[in-house]
From TrEMBL:
Belongs to the SMC family. SMC5 subfamily. This is Structural maintenance of chromosomes protein 5. It comes from Nothobranchius kuhntae. InterPro entries: P-loop_NTPase (IPR027417). SUPFAM superfamilies: P-loop containing nucleoside triphosphate hydrolases. The lineage of its organism: Eukaryota, Metazoa, Chordata, Craniata, Vertebrata. Its main location: nucleus.
Length: 732
């Protein structure tokens, strides 16, 4: 019935939609007729469409030109990109060589490499030029010549940083040495550049000996680095020769202007005595290069970087032009779309009247067809009611049969329930009777057994009690008919009253006895032995503790007897050392240094000095101070010691070598003041040279020692005649 009703409903909905479509079609036809009437007065759009077509052709031509130019730019960009990749590859190859150099530096001297990384990250802290270690910035033009340059420059300088300004160097040392505790070498370039110094001889005049170039011409380096190498190592004046030079070496070393020279595989150093003018020559083999053999042409690298920047600039110009063309192309596309839309609108306007007439005809045909296909709802409803009526008759017949079956089922169900309840009751009663029967039989059997056992137990207990009583009286030496004494009565009165409690107490006492009787003699002996051993160890421990306290007391007393005078002595040295430095407008101090006071083998004297007002006190080491500053500090420390150590005389040999004139003059004045005191030892001050206008004291004696091949024999020397000649020369 529901399906039939649903089918009727669908027909009704379908007819309703059909009527709506008819109404909508009629409305559409009316609207189209109204629109057709409005188009009767529209002007001709053909001239406008022609003008738009001309403009569209111009836009297409411009678009083609832009596409062609873009294609040219893309080809040019591809060429520039290929060139840029080639340049970048060459530059990467050079950078890889630099990385190999850096890896060698890291392997050989990790502190310098760590300082290099720090400098690269903090270069903005410095105002002047700072050059990385020489081995990284020196570029040998021909790798076969790297051995000469590397053998000529010490490794300490090859790993040294070169500074244009001294204040930058001081700042760098504070950060790297003092704060980071790194061992690095630094160099301050000469204030006046020496990189352009000419050699003492033109190389052409030396070709007859086989010399073909000077050491400076074999490599490139930044100006400050080259200036230092020319000043310190005279690379502009060290010639390099070939096998011909080696063959003529005996003649070559006689040339007065040659001090250091190289042949193919050897280095020669020529020294001339200032006294005898005799020549001494030493030679050594030229070792293979380890660091400078990796060559990177700095000029070529600079050119590559410049070309790479030019390529990047060209790519940027191409990208900008491409962006401009793309913008213009997009604008043309937008304008073209606007024109096409306008042309389409005009074309549609031109053919719209015809289109409207066609649409009206089509809609009218559709309307006639829809009016012919109208559904007869009245007929459909009658057919539906007839189907529902027939199904209802079938439904009534089925319900009647179902009602009779339900009544029969209900009656049978009630009978089933009554029988089930009766069965349950009977089953329960049967089970109860069976259980009662079994329990009664079992209980009867159990009672018979218990009674028999109780009789037997009673007889046994009676006999046992009589036996125990007899044994007890026998043990107590009593007759069977004799009553219990008062003491036993009192003892028994303290025992429990029931048999179970007596058995429990008896078992407890037996357990205690078994605990003691189970011990062996060995266990008891081991216990006694361990007890004595513990007592002995406790006494020994007390003795050891007492000895340890005594040792500590002795060590403390010995330490005080040694350490207090030592500190007083060092304090005296510090006072004198500080006074010497203050007299030179510098600062210095001496103290006893140790990290742990109990490690006596690590006690040491620490000397800290400051030669510049802008710096802090630094420990005297081979790395932080210059050679002259170390000489000054050493001399003043020895002078601070001299008044504490009594000796007949002291000898100082060439202590002023390596000092700058200012420090040499200061140290000489302090030596004179100290040596001329009445309480000091005699001084022998040996030196090959002295500054002019030094202050001399009356207590000093000057001895000039002359030496050389042209000196007079001692027996021919006449000091008076020498003085007379000087006086005559002075009067003349």
């Amino acid at each position: 019935i529901d399906d039939i009703k649903q089918a009727l409903k669908m027909k009704q909905i379908e007819e309703e939609d059909h009527q709506k479509r008819i109404v909508n079609t009629r409305r559409t036809i009316e609207d189209l007729k109204v629109e057709l009437d409005k188009l009767g007065d529209q002007p001709d759009t053909t001239p406008q469409i022609s003008a738009i077509s001309v403009e569209l052709r111009e836009i297409q031509e411009r678009t083609v030109r832009i596409e062609a130019e873009k294609a040219d730019l893309r080809r040019e960009r591809d060429n520039v990109m290929a060139e840029s990749r080639s340049l970048q590859k060459k530059l990467n190859d050079m950078n890889n060589l630099m990385n190999v150099k850096e890896e060698k530096l890291r392997t050989r001297h990790r502190d310098t490499h760590t300082a290099l990384l720090w400098l690269r990250e903090n270069r903005q802290l410095f105002s002047g030029n700072i050059h990385e270690p020489m081995m990284l910035v020196i570029n040998v033009k021909d790798h076969q010549n790297a051995k000469y340059v590397e053998n000529h420059i010490s490794f300490h300088d090859l790993r040294a940083f070169v500074f244009q300004r001294k204040d930058d160097m001081e700042k760098f040392l504070v950060e790297v040495r003092d704060k980071m505790n790194l061992k690095v070498n630094t160099i301050s370039a000469p204030e006046v550049s020496c990189s352009g110094r000419p050699p003492s001889r033109n190389i052409e005049s030396m070709r007859r000996f086989g010399f073909f170039t000077y050491l400076r011409e074999m490599f490139n380096a930044p100006d400050e680095v080259m200036s230092y190498l020319c000043s310190q190592y005279k690379v502009h004046d060290v010639p390099v020769g070939n096998e011909q030079t080696k063959a003529l070496i005996n003649t070559v070393i006689q040339e007065p202007y040659l001090k250091v020279l190289y042949t193919t595989d050897e280095r020669y150093t020529v020294k001339r005595s200032i006294y005898s003018n005799k020549t001494s020559t030493s030679n050594s083999a030229v070792q293979k290069s380890q660091y400078l053999i990796i060559t990177v042409d700095a000029e070529e690298r600079r050119q590559l970087e410049q070309q790479l920047r030019a390529c990047e600039s060209k790519l940027q110009e191409i990208d900008e032009r491409m962006k401009t063309l793309q913008t213009e192309f997009a604008a043309l596309n937008r304008h073209e779309n606007e024109l096409l839309s306008e042309k389409k609108r005009l074309s549609e306007l031109k053919g719209k009247k015809k289109q409207l007439e066609q649409k009206i005809g089509t809609k009218q045909d559709s309307l006639r067809q829809m009016e012919q296909n109208v559904i007869d709802l009245k007929k459909v409803e009658e057919e539906t009611n007839a189907k529902i009526k027939a199904i209802s008759f079938q439904k009534v017949t089925i319900v009647s049969v179902l009602t009779a079956e339900i009544k029969t089922k209900a009656k049978l169900s009630m009978e089933k329930v009554y029988l089930a309840l009766e069965t349950v009751g009977l089953t329960a009663e049967k089970n109860k009777l069976e259980n009662d029967c079994r329990e009664g039989a079992s209980e009867l059997k159990t009672m018979d057994i218990k009674c028999s056992r109780l009789e037997q137990r009673k007889v046994q207990l009676t006999e046992k009690c009589k036996g125990l009583l007899k044994s007890a009286k026998s043990i107590c030496r009593m007759q069977m008919d004799e009553p219990l004494p008062e003491g036993l009565r009192n003892a028994f009165s303290n025992l429990p009253d029931t048999l179970d409690e007596v058995d429990s107490m008896l078992n407890e006492e037996r357990s205690r006895a078994e605990c003691f009787t189970g011990l062996s003699e060995n266990v008891v002996e081991e216990y006694s032995r361990r007890e004595q051993e513990i007592e002995h160890l406790e006494k020994e421990l007390e003795k050891k503790i007492a000895d340890l306290n005594a040792y500590r007391q002795n060590i403390s007393e010995a330490k005080e007897r040694w350490l207090i005078p030592l500190k007083q002595l060092i304090e005296q040295i510090n006072d004198k050392f500080s006074n010497f430095f203050r007299s030179m407008q510098c600062a210095g101090e001496v103290d006893l240094h140790t990290e742990n006071e109990e490690e006596y083998d690590k006690y040491g004297i620490r000397i800290r000095v400051k030669f510049h007002s802008s710096t802090q006190l630094h420990e005297l080491t081979a790395h932080h101070q210059s050679g002259g500053e170390r000489s000054v500090s050493t001399m003043l420390y020895l002078m601070a010691l001299q008044e504490l150590n009594r000796c007949p005389f002291r000898v100082v040999d060439e202590i002023n070598q390596g000092m700058d004139p200012i420090n040499e003059r200061r140290v000489f004045d302090i030596v004179v003041q100290t040596a001329c005191k009445e309480t000091t030892s005699q001084y022998f001050f040996i030196t090959p040279k002295l500054l002019q206008n030094l202050q001399y004291a009356e207590e000093m004696t000057v001895l000039c020692v002359h030496n050389g091949p042209h000196m007079l024999p001692p027996h021919k020397w006449d000091i008076k005649a020498f003085i007379r000649r000087l006086e005559r020369k002075a009067r003349a």
